[in-house]
Amino acid sequence: MSEAATGRGAGVLADRVVLVTGANGGLGEAAARACAQAGATVVLLGRRVPRLNKLYDILATLGPEPAAYPLDMEGAGPEDYAQLATSLESQLGRLDGILHAALAFKGLTPLANTDPLEFAREIHVNLTAPMLLTQACLPLLRRAPDAAVVFVLDDLERIGRAYWGGYAVAKHGLLGLMRVLHDETEQGGVRVSALEPGPMRSGFRAKAFMESALRDIPAPTAYAAACVELLSPAGASHRGAVHRVRADA
Question: What Gene Ontology terms describe where this protein resides (cellular component) (predicted)?
Answer without folding.
Answer: membrane
